Amino acid sequence: ESNISRYHQEFLELELIGSGQFGSVYKCINRLDGCVYAVKKSTRPVAGSVLEKRALNEVYAHAVLGRHQHVVRYYSAWAEDNHMIIQNEYCNGGSLAEKISQESLSISELRQLILHVAEGLRYIHSEGLVHLDIKPGNIFISREKKAQYTNYDSADDGFEDADEPSICEEEQIMYKIGDLGHVTSLINPQVEEGDCRYLPKEILNDDYTQLTKADVFALGLTVLEAAGSGPLPKNGEQWHKIRELQIPPLAQTLSRDLLELVKLMINPDPALRPSPLQILQHRAVCPVGKK
Ligand SMILES: Cn1cc(CCO)c2c3c(c(-c4ccccc4Cl)cc21)C(=O)NC3=O
């Protein structure tokens, strides 16, 4: 096999943007297409181990979850010199966790967050998969420039020349679901529990009958944290209190509708939690003026 790595042949490494027990993530430029990507390098898991299953899970999930504007896009994955490498879409706005550590989200940003992640979950679930590790650290932000062409009718303003489209650059914030390392199929789920701070009680009791509602629960706690609840408990009294709907005081006072929606999403009974589609139809989220 070639002794220069495909990674260094194909990419120019710009900076380390994250590291942990999962490995290291670099912001890279692809030398061929000149685009920026997020590339995660992790030590190659031992063949047949749980870690290898998870690494393959992640790549299978990305391969199935082709293109959705609220799921981080996958480009390629390969193994080289004892490393697993995955090349994903680079989201230039950091993770939601980083943003929350600086400031809580405004009401309109919270609504966008719920809208985008519920859309992404609806897509993932429609493919017969569940994410199982929804949390601020796995939601990435993309600030995309949308060029808006605003034509005006020259008759209005007296100019003689033909319509001159004027371009105004709008910045569009997009929230994207990332890290598909815990994704599993709804049919015969191989559940690898996600972060316990966002885990609903039924999963802890090995009840996998309503896995899509575990993603909804985790989104509910993610929204609470984005609204300024402060770091969520990993266990103990507070962990149980939240799961009995004792909501911690929030920096961002939510509207009655928004608070009602979040309480529904973290309801102890998964059957009472709304599906992603029902979230999108809730009056706290759907655009104003909906009949
Ligand atoms: C720590 N970290 C920071 C970022 C940049 C956020 O602005 C990031 C990204 C990803 C990932 C990632 C997560 C899990 C698996 C593979 C990757 Cl590349 C991790 C990331 C990813 O898939 N896309 C990213 O932008």
Fold and architecture overview:
The radius of gyration is 21 Å and the shape is globular. The strands form 3 sheets. Strands 1-2-3-5-4 form a 5-stranded antiparallel β-sheet. The model has no long low-confidence stretch (mean pLDDT 92). It has 10 helices and 9 strands. The protein has helices at residues 6-10, 50-64, 96-102, 107-126, 154-157, 201-204, 211-226, 236-242, 256-265, 276-281; strands spanning 11-20, 23-30, 36-43, 74-80, 83-89, 129-130, 139-150, 166-177, 184-185. The protein is of the alpha+beta class. The longest helix is centred in the middle third of the chain and has 20 residues, at 107-126. Strand 2 and strand 3 (36-43) form a beta hairpin. Helix 4 runs antiparallel to helix 7 and helix 7 (211-226) packs antiparallel against helix 9 (256-265). The protein binds the ligand Cn1cc(CCO)c2c3c(c(-c4ccccc4Cl)cc21)C(=O)NC3=O. The ligand Cn1cc(CCO)c2c3c(c(-c4ccccc4Cl)cc21)C(=O)NC3=O is lined by residues 17-18, 25, 38, 40, 72, 86, 88-91, 93-95, 140, 178-179.
